[in-house]
Amino acid sequence: MRLEAPWLTEPGTQAVFDALDGCGAWFVGGCVRDGLLERPVEDIDICTDARPADVIARAKTAGLRAIPTGIDHGTVTLIAAGRPFEITTLRRDIDTDGRHAQVAFSDRLEEDAARRDFTMNALYATRDGTVIDPNGTGIADLAARHLRFIGDPSERIAEDYLRILRFFRFFAWYAPVDGGIDAEGLAACAAGLDGLAQLSRERVGAETRKLLTAPDPACAVAAMDQSGVLSAILPGAEAKMLIWLTGIEGDIAPNAMRRLAAMGGEDAAERLRLSKAEATLLALYRSEMGKTSSAGELGYNYGFDAARDILSLRGLVDGRPASQEDLDAAAIGADAVFPVKAADLLLIYSGPALGKALKTLEARWIASGFTLTKDALLHAL
Question: Is 285 strand, coil or helix?
């Protein structure tokens, strides 16, 4: 099998392989997986049998910038044609503690492949795109969208408990053709629940965000619920609410905070280490879900995207998507500009009374569907 993708022949890619000429060097992981699926590729990772010091020396000779981003684990980032490439020496695990691994460098693809998580992630490709499948099942599993651990799932999970969350995240993004989830992998995730406590909340949050931005994460989250993983990372969250939401989202772009708002859950902002902006948006969604402010007012107060998300969340009550009428009203509200300024009322009001008058006029203007003019509003005083 041969991988064909435009990034194979880009100047930066060629410059990196030129620098590694004479060493074994292969594309690996996500770029091979997504390239075979003809999906966009952002990160181009390369593995090599050259040791990190040799990679750095070769980069210097080739005029490429080398950054020792993870040199203790064999990773050097090369910058070529303005693009970063992670170059990692082939490795094998010596010891693991459930999150971090002590590694030794290797000269064999088979050893490097054996330490990876899923068969579809252990695919390699030569410079010309020839695909190599050291485990023997990666190509077939990728074609069938069969997400499967390499070897014994329990052993892979015990090496790194983050793989539990990665299992569901990859299932969401690479759902199998037949819709089924690997039963052995799911059972191993359920059995390894206690290990999730070893993970930082930042890593849990990052994996959860990635999962919730999949086109349709409902089946993956339902499997998380079934295995006990969902309640372990976010107590009180309900998979069924996400399933209902994705059923009425239509073609709205995925949004992790909208979906998280639907799922509920205790202390989500803290448990998932949300950013301040994310936490604010999540709180807004949860607050407005139970209110009755009009679509136009939502658009005016929060902008169209947030208004559309809130309208979708309110649709969970009756299982209906936001109506086109409401979406149109939200768009009008988002573009509306209140015509009255404080200066227009200074001859009549001052201090707190001025603010109260402005709010009263603004409420009338919103209730009119943003149709009342400045003159009409001022004459109504």
Answer: helix
Distance separating alpha carbons of residues 107 and 89, to the nearest angstrom = 8
pLDDT at residue 94, rounded to an integer: 80
Per the domain annotation, does 212 fall within a domain?
no
pLDDT tens readout for residues 114-156? 999 999 999 999 999 999 999 999 999 999 999 999 999 999 9
Instruction: Tell me if residue 102 falls in helix, strand or coil.
Output: strand
Helices 218-227, 162-173: inter-axial angle, 10-degree rounding: 150
Q: Is residue 189 part of a domain?
A: no
How many whole angstroms separate alpha carbon 135 and alpha carbon 132?
9
| Residue 231 domain-assigned (yes or no) | no
Using an 8 Å Cβ cutoff, are 107 and 113 in contact? no
- Reported as a single tens digit per residue, the pLDDT across 313-323 is 999 988 899 99
Which of these three, 144, 178, 207, is where a domain ends? 144
Q: Is residue 24 part of a domain?
A: yes
The mean predicted confidence, pLDDT, of the chain is 95
Whole-number Å distance between alpha carbons of 99 and 196: 10
Residue 354: domain span = 337-379
Contact (CB, 8 A) for 161 and 198: yes
What is d(CA 120, CA 36) in angstroms, rounded to the nearest whole number? Answer: 10
Determine the angle formed by the axes of helices 304-314 and 295-302, rounding to 10 degrees: 140
Q: How many domains does the chain have?
A: 2
Quote the distance between the C-alpha of residue 85 and its chain's center: 21
Q: What is the CATH number of the domain that holds 97?
A: 3.30.460.10
